Amino acid sequence: MVFDSLVKGRRENLRWGEFYQGSTGNRGDLADCLARFRIDAVMHFAAFIEVGESVADPAAYYLNNVAGSLQLMQAMAQGGIRRMVYSSSAAVYGSPLRVPIDEEHPLTPLSPYGWSKQMVETMLADFGTAWGLRSMALRYFNAAGAAASGEIGEQHTPESHLIPRILEAALAGDRPVTVYGTNYPTPDGTCIRDYIHVTDLARAHVLALEYLLDGGPGGAFNLGQGQGASVMEVVRKAAEITGRPIAVEPAARRPGDPPVLVASNEKARRELGWMPEHSSLDNIVATAWKWHRKMKGLA
Ligand SMILES: NC(=O)c1ccc[n+]([C@@H]2O[C@H](COP(=O)([O-])OP(=O)(O)OC[C@H]3O[C@@H](n4cnc5c(N)ncnc54)[C@H](O)[C@@H]3O)[C@@H](O)[C@H]2O)c1
């Protein structure tokens, strides 16, 4: 079953299972939900996700992401639910000291958003020690792409993610994509990120849950494809797949944006048997394009 306040999510994207509208910020919602449904494990995605917004309004982030998670864990403790798959983030690493980034890399986030993810990871470990919660902290790199069917896809408000911004620009045709920083120490001067398809992420969640159900101890796992693409490579790929010209507008670097973020996914491959299968840049952009066209009534 899905528990979501819909503070950011959309009802029409919830296609499967039962739905309970509630907030992790509301103890009553959590208690009522746990009383109504027999729950064996929780996959915890609920959070605010905008790095820039978290810098401007840290209280909102610590309240929703940290205090909300704490209330959820307390409700789980009361209900005897001892398994959680948690949406962490590559943002816990901050500016990388080495790439590819492995799970042993120091955690020095650069924003309240990143710290909120790190703090919940620490709480999960402490709850593990205190009452046997077993948890998987899945550190996603850049989630991207859409369902191959075109049924569901990425739809954030505001949209800060690169691929939807590029595709929106391709559809609009009359505005350039802003590229933050064109003088990074990378081959074309733009930032390199590790894009991972949502279908691969979804598969990793199933494997993570099976791992916990099989008695696995839990821990932190990077979910990235292990290769990066630069902003300009993504723009070129989008122009190729959409068949539309995409203009770019160079802008200053954003504070806290490291030049390269690429995952080592060895641990997830080894311990979960996970392998990214849908994360070629072609497939990511093509599935996202299918979804964007459908949203605009063009498909
Ligand atoms: N999108 C990415 O690239 C990415 C990368 C790393 C980690 N993550 C993490 O993955 C998770 C999902 O991200 P997303 O991109 O799907 O974001 P999203 O905003 O689309 O989804 C978050 C969902 O949580 C809900 N929510 C927020 N606060 C809530 C609360 N207090 N109680 C109940 N529901 C609440 C929202 O309504 C929304 O449906 C987040 O935890 C995010 O930090 C995302």
Give a verbal description of the structure.
- There is one protein chain.
- The chain has about 300 residues and is an alpha/beta fold.
- The chain has a single domain (about 1-295), classed as Rossmann fold (3-Layer(aba) Sandwich), CATH 3.40.50.
- Helices cover about 40% and strands about 15% of the residues.
- The chain contains 9 helices and 13 strands.
- The strands form 5 sheets. It has a 4-stranded parallel sheet with strand order 3-4-5-10, with helices on both faces. Strands 11-8-13 form a 3-stranded mixed sheet. The chain has a two-stranded parallel ribbon with strand order 1-2.
- Strand 4 (about 85-90), helix 4 and strand 5 form a beta-alpha-beta unit.
- Helix 5 (about 160-170) packs across helix 7 (about 230-240) and helix 5 packs across helix 9 (about 280-295).
- The longest helix has 22 residues, at about 60-80.
- The two termini are about 30 Å apart.
- Nicotinamide-adenine-dinucleotide (NAD) binds near residues 6, 8 and 46.
- The site of nicotinamide-adenine-dinucleotide (NAD) has 21 residues, from helix 3, strand 4 and strand 6.
Summarize the structure.
The protein is built from 9 helices and 13 strands. By secondary structure, it is α/β, with parallel strands linked by helices.
Question: What brief labels describe this structure?
Answer:
binds nicotinamide-adenine-dinucleotide; alpha/beta; 13 strands; three-stranded mixed sheet; 299 residues; four-stranded parallel sheet; Rossmann fold; single chain
